[in-house]
Each structure stands twice: as structure tokens, then as C-alpha cells.
From TrEMBL:
This is CTLH domain-containing protein. Keywords: Cytoplasm, Repeat, WD repeat. Pfam families: LisH_WDR26, WD40. Residues 563-597 are annotated as: Disordered. Residues 568-584 have a biased composition (Polar residues).
Amino acid sequence: MGGFEDDEPPSKRARASSVESANLPESFCYSKSINPLGGTMARPLASQGKEVMVGSKGVIKRDEFVRIITKALYTLGYEKSGAVLEEESGITLHSPSVNLFRKQVLDGNWDNAVATLNKLGLLDENIVKSAALLLLEQKFFDLLRNDNLMGAIKTLQNEISPLGVNRKRVHEMSSCIISSPQNFLLAFPKLGTEASDSRLKLLEELQKVLPPAVMVPERRLENIVEQALTVQREACYLHNSIDGLSLYVDHHCGRDQIPSRTLQVLREHGDEVWFLQFSNNGKYLASSSNDKSAIIWKVDEDVELLLKHRLTGHEKPVMMVAWSPDDSQLLTCGMEEAIRRWNIESGECIHVYEKPGLGLTSCGWFPDGKQILCGLSDQSLCLWDLDGKEADCWKGQRSSKISDFSVTKDGKVIIIMNRDSTILLFNRDTKQERLIEEDNTITSFSLSDDGDFLLVNLISEKIHLWNIRNDPSRVKQYIGHKRSRFVIRSCFGGSDQAFIASGSEDSKVYIWHRATEDVIETLSGHSGAVNCVSWNPTNPHMLASASDDHTIRIWGVKKASTKRKDIGSSSSSNGTHMNGSANGNGFVHQCNGSRSK
């Protein structure tokens, strides 16, 4: 389930104890009955309030339950409410000794804090020594901060060393005495913080060491609630919700959360649509076609796609597109022709990349957005600066006609086809090479957002999921779609990329549950092979598919109020008609960018 960050402002954490209850106004009376609803509904039943255990299952200890609620109230800044709860329930958040201990820590009264620690009745001597080390370490730092070197030495020799715990830490503190101030500030960053901030952090560290019955951990109620919600989400087989999980009801997603209804048909392309991809921010969709053009579509506020720019200038069919990391630019690659770089806002061509005597077969961005990767017809892969200067090139490593490649987000691993049935994972830093070896010819592949998994499409009508975090291992297989002649592309998608989608030569879109391998939806509507699919990375309810029937379909959830809209010159519906001319909302742009050879 992972850890949970404590991002509560320090000023609130400092007040999150019953120490402050003594500072409430005298006019605030604890004993007064408070009913925020103004009636009897808020009052407990006569049988409630005294049981040791609470809840329908009888597994929750009443005193612990009340204490973590009290802690949550103080943490949220509701000090009066926290104090009232302590008074009315008779269950205090902390004992008087612990309250005194916390106050001594916040005041920097280290000697008395150590003395109080030893009076808390802790049975585990190791816990006492570990907590004492934290206190005396802070005392040591305060003495150094105040230039009291002799005091720091005495504290180290007479108080810290005799504890006999964490020798490595003690040696590090010893080095502070003989090091320059700059060196030990690097070794102990807390020395560079304000005393009040360092003491608040010390309290947090002490809460991790001391038993929770002594000091209730920070944000414990929030953690329990988050864990419960996480369990519900993980148990939700079809989890694909846009809205956050509610505390009011148990979480459950039905099939209506899977994008399976055609919301729009985009008909602006004049020939087969081969490739499409949503932008990283999910605000745009780019498509490329056998009609030698690419189109940029904008996702508007009503979650409808409108033609933004038609990009023309390629002399051959446009094989693929690639978004820059910041979504401000787009690469388009012609079929063994040239790569063009476009400005998304203006639709103008910024640069043309060519290689004399060779055709370019694929394109992609390096994660820093300052370089691009290009596959060439001689089966080499080149890294170019944006101005077209070659920065690196890998030649002779590939024997496959498939030009797909990916780069992990840290830029360290380049994933390329090596042979017809082999994918090479090449680490640029270590020069390490790892291989994914399949029994059948690979037709395409795609990388997960976290960079740990690779989705591999095979000529055998199978899709394999590989874990590539360490040594590559095949973990899942998806079957059901059809492929006999064309390159069919698949993708990860949905909430937490919990689903797999793929095109198919039977004119359908297939959706699998990633973990179980089950086909959960088969989407019909296209009249030609579906070549490529793309799931909106920021909207799990939006899926796009590109087909040989010259159209793009936008799939969404089943909402009765949503009307399907066809966009394009061949539209026969009452949807928005986009003709791609300068007089409409779409604009045609002829490439006039500078050329690199």
C-alpha cells in the first residue's frame, strides 16, 4: 500500500496535543453539553459510551478509537473540539507525563526531557536508549550551534557514548567536532534549520520510536482511512473511476466506467488512419494517415474533439506522430521519407529532418525534450539535437524492419527492435544489453508509464506483457484479437493503467483486464481494420481508435445524455461539422520549415 506523506503544516502539528487545552479561553466550558445539530439526534444512545469495544464487529478498542479521533482533530487545527472530546470521553490523548515530555522537547529542555523519558514506565530498554539518543543528539547540535564546543564534547563523552547504541551515528557526531562548519552542515542538514523546526521534526522521530500507546502516531486516522480506501480500490475489478473515492459508501465500479460507447466519429482524413496518440496532458490527440497528412485535435471543455490543425507537407503517407514531453511540439514521420517538427499552438512547421540517401522510418523524443530519436531505413537509430545535429547513432545492431522504439523517462534505457523476434534494452550509462526474446515475429510494442513493463504485439495474434524492471520476464498474455496482414498496435490505459486495449483486423477494439487477462469489452463500430488505439492519459473514460475505414472513433462511458457527434466532410449526423478550411475552427498548414540533412 505504500507510505503516506505527512504534509501537515508544522504550526498545526505543534498544537496537536492536549498541552494546548490548558490555554483555551476561560469562558470555554468543557462540561456544557454541546449538540451541533440542535436536537437529540446527536446524543449517544443510553447503552453507548461505556463499552470497551465499539463497532458492529466488536474489534475496535474504544479508548484507542477516541484517542486517534482526538489526535486527528488537533492535527486538523480543531483544538477546542479536541479538548471537548478529551473532557467528555474521559480519555486523554496523552498522559500528564507525556504532555510534560512533549513540552520539554519543544522548549529544548533536554536534561529534563531525558529525566521525564525515564519516568514514562517504558519496559523496553532499547526503546528508552534510542529515544534518549535522539534527545541528546539534538542537545549536542544545539551546543554546536551556540559555539559551545566544550559542552558538546562533554555531552558526547558522558551522555551519548555510554548509551552504547548506534555507534556509527556517534562516530559521525564525533567527526563534527573536528570538521569545518560547512562539512558537518552537509552531514547533518538539521543543523541548518531553525531550532523550532528541528524540535518539531524531533517529536515526529520520537513518535516513531516510542510505543503508539505512549504517543499516538501522527495522522494515524488518515492513514487508516487511506488504507481502507486503497483496499476497496484494489478489490474493485473494473476500477476506472474519474471521481475520487467517497467515504460515505463502499467503492464499486461497474462496466459503465469502461469507455465502450462511441461518442464521436472523426472523418477528416481522406484515407486509412494508421496511427494516433493523445498528448501527455490529455488535451490533444494527433493522428496520421495514408492521405499524407497529420491532424491535431483539441479536447474541449465538453470532452469533445475539435480539429485544431491539419498538417500537410509530407510527400508520402505519415507513419506515426510523437508528442514532445511538454506537449508544445509534435513530430510527424513520413514513410521512409522525412521527419517534421511542428508548433502545436500555431500549427507551423519548425524544422525538417532528412538523411541523404536514407529514409526515416520512426520518430520519438528524448525525455529532456532537447533531442529526438529517429529510426532509419538502414535499420540504424540516431539521436539528433533539435537543430538536426547528430549526437549519437547506433548502427548495425538491428536486423528487423519494425522501427518501434521507446526511451525510459530517465533517459537511461533505450528499447529497440534487435531482430524480428527480439527486443534490445540498451542502458546508455552502463552499456548493458538485455534481451526480450519471443518465439514469434514482433509487430509492435509500447512502454508503460512507469517504465517497468513492455507490451509486445506478435504476429501469432498474441500480446505479451513483460516485466523489464530487472531481468526481463513475461508475466501476462492477452488473446482474442485478429491479425494476419497489418501492423496492429495496443496500449496501456485506464486508471493506474489497469487495462490493455488493442486494435484488430476484424474491425473491433479489444479491452482486457491487465491483471486477469480477461477480455472485458469488445467494441464494434469500425468497418475496417483497427490499426491503432490510444487511451487518454488523464481521462480514463476516453479511448481513441484509428481505422482503415478512414475514421477515428472516440469511445466513452455510457451516459444517456451524451449524443454522438460525427466530425468531417462525410458526416451525416447533426454533430459539429469541421471542414478543415481557414474559415472554420480547423486550419490547414503547409510545411515550410527549415531542413536538416
